[in-house]
Specification:
- By secondary structure, the chain is α+β, with helices and mostly antiparallel strands.
- The protein is built from 2 helices and 6 strands.
- Strands 1, 2, 3, 4, 5 and 6 form a 6-stranded mixed β-sheet that branches.
- The relative contact order is 0.23.
Length: 115
Amino acid sequence: MEQLVYAALRGLVNDRVYPDLADEPPERPYITYQQVGGEAINFVDAATLPGTSNARVQVNVWADTRPVASALARQVENALRAVAGLQTTVLGAAVALYEPETKLRGTMQDFSFWF
């Protein structure tokens, strides 16, 4: 799943896509993503194992200005919807963020992926 997310988003920000958080303050704009849950699949027959998995993934966009962050968030949503291998469901609209220490504008949005 992580490889599919990275591949879908890397072209939007010149490869500046990071799991969890960016180690060093990268050039902006950039994207981070983190799995924040998902749906568990359980069978009555304990010997049966699921053939698919689900992940709820939060994607954050960070930029110097609100217009850049908002436009990039829309591109992220469109790019993830197009990945057949993720069977993307958008779980809500993007939430605007502001980071006072860095003065960065951002967005946060959750997606559900079946893979």
